[in-house]
Design goal:
19% of the residues lie in helices and 35% in strands. It is of the alpha/beta class. Strands 1-8-11-10 form a four-stranded mixed sheet, with no helix packed on it. A four-stranded parallel sheet has the order 6-5-4-7. It catalyses: (6S)-5,6,7,8-tetrahydrofolate + NADP(+) = 7,8-dihydrofolate + NADPH + H(+).
Length: 159
């Protein structure tokens, strides 16, 4: 699972991110490129076009939803999405909030960018239970001319 969430677990509002962190975008691209990415329909629709060098698995309850993009497949449950990646070494759940909540009991690694500010949002990342997860790596990134807010890259592994 890979996400960027504020101190209060805010992810976004009105299907938009609440911050602009170019280094986090670069990290997301580096980690997910060459892999399948699993997301909800609204997350997919927030992209101007499918992300390059990734296979998109879009989860929706809408049985009539389709996409013409060849790098995409529409499914109707997290279980269906996971069955498509069962033979892959790595695949990433990339959001949104409901998909993160469904996937949290299943995933074994969380790549989280913790944005060091609280935001008003309509979508939130689930609470990480530190009894079940161990922080394996932490890297702080201060605010600078390209990043208005500081953030940390956190890698959690399931106990």
């Amino acid at each position: 699972m890979i996400a960027a969430a504020a101190e209060n677990n805010a992810l976004g509002k009105d299907n938009q991110l609440l911050w602009h962190l170019p280094d986090d975008f670069k990290r997301f691209k580096a980690i997910t490129s060459g892999h399948s990415i699993i997301m909800g329909r609204k997350t997919f629709e927030s992209f101007p076009k499918p992300l390059p060098n990734r296979f998109h698995i879009i989860i929706t309850r809408d049985r009539s939803y389709t996409t013409e993009h060849e790098a995409c497949k529409v499914v109707h449950s997290l279980e269906d999405a996971l069955s498509l990646v069962k033979n892959e070494k790595e695949a990433y759940v990339i959001g949104g909030g409901e998909i993160y909540t469904q996937a949290l009991p299943i995933v074994d690694v969380i790549e989280l960018t913790r944005v060091h500010k609280a935001y008003e949002a309509d979508t939130y990342f689930p609470e990480i239970d530190l009894k079940k997860w161990k922080l394996r790596n932490e890297e702080f990134h201060p605010a600078d001319e390209k990043h208005k807010v500081s953030f940390s890259y956190l890698t959690y592994e399931r106990h």
